[in-house]
Amino acid sequence: MTKIISFISRKGGTGKTTNAINLATMLHSLGHSVRLIETDTNYTLSTLRKMELFKTGAKEDQLFSIVPSEDQVVADEIESYKKQRIDFIILDTAGKTTDVSIKKICVGSDLVLIPTSLSQNDLLVTYQTVEDLKPAIEINKNLKIVILPNRIHGSTRNKTIAGMLDQLDAYILENFVPSKNLFTQSSTILAEKEYLGITKEILTLF
Q: What is the tally of structural domains in the chain?
């Protein structure tokens, strides 16, 4: 059965796109069939994929697909994609998704990932994002809301991260994304091996 993972945040720049692509490439490298949908109208990932295909000569039919969409229609499109027996559909939403679109996307998702740093601004936005998702849980009782600690200093202890995120009414991943350049310069073709732990933990949630 197809699993829908949506990256959502009320703010741009929290790491939705970079984490979406890292998760997609790692799942693909583990042998899962994946489709990545991006609703940011800049279509960053679609452009990056074209550049990588040109530079590397990789065969597109051997890679997972990246397709553009829009927040207001993507939930309906996902329903049609489910019929294609894809293991995972990963949705990278835009930073200014409307309340209506967020609710519809969440109702159709199995898991929502909210990336956040530990900065006060990001934490406030993340708290509001979690609150905004609660109406969808009343409809989709199986929906999991998960916080992905992102851009965390490598020496930060898990206990410290948990303490700073304990006001959030959501599951907090124990694995976190460290503040390293390799996580900001993602590839749509090659998986980043350091993302394996995060991916494995996400898989345990299904």
A: 1
